[in-house]
Amino acid sequence: MKKKSITAGLVTFVGFLIITTIIALLYITSAANARRERADFIAKSVADRIHAEIQRREYITRMLEIEVSSSKGVITSDSFQVTAEEVFNDYLDIVDISLAPEGVVSYIYPLSNGIGDRMNLFEDGVQGVYSDYSKMSGVPIIMAPITLDSGDYGIIIRRPIYTSDQVSDDTFWGFASVTLKLSDFLASVGMKDLAEGGYEYKLIGNNPITGDSRIIMEYSEKALAAPVEAMISTVGGGFWTLEISPMNNWMNLYEILGSLFIAIVISSLAAFGMSAYMSMKANAKELEILSYRDALTNLNNPRSYQEHMDELSKKKLPYGLIFMDLNDFKQVNDTYGHDAGDALLNIVAKRLQNSIREKDKAFRIGGDEFVVVIHGTHDKKFYEGVIARMRQNVARDVVLSNVTLQVSISAGYARCPEDGTKFEDVVKKADDAMYHNKRLYKSQKKQAGGDRGTRT
């Protein structure tokens, strides 16, 4: 016992150490996941603000499109300047607002009288490809980052305008554009707050023409450690991606080592207590088996049977009882000994258990006597089928050492409430049916003759 206790203590110590280490790792993972969830929320919040602010600025180009359409394509510098002035002062990041009839920038605000520099957007080395794409597809585009005349980085949102709903060269009127200062725009959506909150970030734009990705803005040039991502729908089917991750990784080395150290200390202190608990649990389990399980067959025992039937009777639930015993079992004990009889009972018990549904229960109530409790309401044909299956399974030859036994059972059943509402009445009827079946067996055996077992 002492050796077993020491072994159990060592096994418990190792097992508990593994468990606490796993718990520590789960804590580390959980903490990292919690931080990722928070970062994901922050990234999505910033992404939502970027999306909303881009939509607001794109709406300026939509306003210009409406004005051009309402004037049937005829617009003056005065009317353009009135419209542009109304929205310009609402946004601190707007550099200019422009109209480009037939792709030539002719109206721009703020400039004197709103007269542009007549730049042809289709001939521009940087913007020409985008302008061609927007004209041909009929969808707005966003270009970022673009180097502005001031040397700053900017964003351009450009909308193609047509004189009808049909997109073609004949109906193409020109472009409405809004130019933004990139740093001012990102400040308005709270990008600076990311760095102040301890996050590194990268804002990556997708080129709608080539599908290539390009850094729009980044806090650090190094690759981010397992960043969380938030997609940002821009204009014309384009999208940006915002990536963020903590400056000091999701979990630092001191947190990881500290968690593992605490796990080791706790597991060491708890090992002896866990060993005692496991011993008590093993004893309790053994007592439970002795109390409710048959020691030979591991089926439910008479105590379990009585408690189960009391519960069914108390709840007034429908059930059925199948009583059975082995034919000529005494002859087996007398001829081959009690060890052979015990081995036979154990095999028969397993075969009976395999013959019933998982929700039904099998009991050994004494000697070679067994009871199966069928739960629910079923007709006679169902019970006859169960008994036939039991007979077939049990009837397979049982080989014990140098002896082959042919086994059979006598069985009878009764149902509640069909055959009686009281437990005692159902038991009596099932028992009577079993003994009636046994008398038939003995009568048939007397007429046919035959031995219980044969030596091989």
Per DSSP, what share of the residues sits in E-state strands of 2 or more residues?
Answer: 15-25%
Largest sheet: 5 strands, antiparallel
Low-confidence stretches: 451-456
Overall pLDDT level: 86
Structural class estimated from helices and strands? alpha+beta
Q: What does this protein structure show overall?
A:
By secondary structure, the protein is of the alpha+beta class. It contains 11 helices and 16 strands. The strands form 4 sheets. It has a 5-stranded antiparallel sheet, with helices on both faces. A 4-stranded antiparallel sheet has the order 7-6-9-8. A hairpin with a 5-residue loop joins strand 8 (228-233) and strand 9 (239-246). The radius of gyration is 43 Å and the shape is elongated. It starts with a helix and ends with a strand. Residues 451-456 have low confidence and may be disordered.
